[in-house]
Request: fold
Amino acid sequence: MRVGFYQFAPKPRALEENLNRIFARLKGVNADLIVLPELCLSGYLFASREELARYALKLPDAPVCSRLANFCAEKNFSLVLGAAEKAGASIFNSALLFTPNGSIHVYRKVHLFNDEKDIFDPGDLPFPVFRVDTVTVGMLVCFDYFFPESARSLVLRGAQIVCHPANLVLNYAQSMTITRAQENRVFWILANRTGTEALGSRVMNFTGQSQIISPEGTVLARASAEDEKLEIVDINPALALNKTVTPRNDLIADRRPGLYFSGAG
Ligand code: ACM
Reply:
């Protein structure tokens, strides 16, 4: 299976321009699954929830959705990208999966980062997984990586690949995603953005270094911190079905959920 990421610096509040850039860069690509950054159509910083609402997509009717769905059908690949999603009165920081058969699947960021809490609603979907051809994939959005339960939930549901659109700013994030891949024996596609966004006194410096990680924690591809980069690698997703750590340890079978404290209630 040919999987990849496209790392770039989306232009703030320039949906059409960002979309055209994505189409232009991906149109010649031979791949099965490509992951793009968080909020890659709108940019990251907004003055208010009202302003964000103007850039949020209503699924599946937003014209952008049919353009992306047609592109995936034409190219016969699947695309995961981060986008603001409007659903009734709510606005979510979502990851959308477009498959070549026209399906649009959604995951809504559960763990909002810092000032995102002022403008987004926290996700309400319990870490769903989806099929891309015969492979089970899950999605996380950026700061979700910080909570090991997020990736673990996807893997307990059968995810072989974690698709991770991000706008990372903490400098240890990339190494934490390697640990998340290792502790779950799962492929991990981190699509981070580059560049800086500023709005009033707020400045965000995004860290790039998008990467594709194997279930053993090997970095199969990595971009630099600054450059636009499209990377595609060949993987065997079946490797993520093997959870053996030693001849006598399986990381799923050896769990002791009866002893773990969830903190809930
Ligand atoms: C983040 O969650 N965008 C850091």
In short: The domain at 2-260 is CATH 3.60.110.10 (Nitrilase/N-carbamoyl-D-aminoacid amidohydrolase).
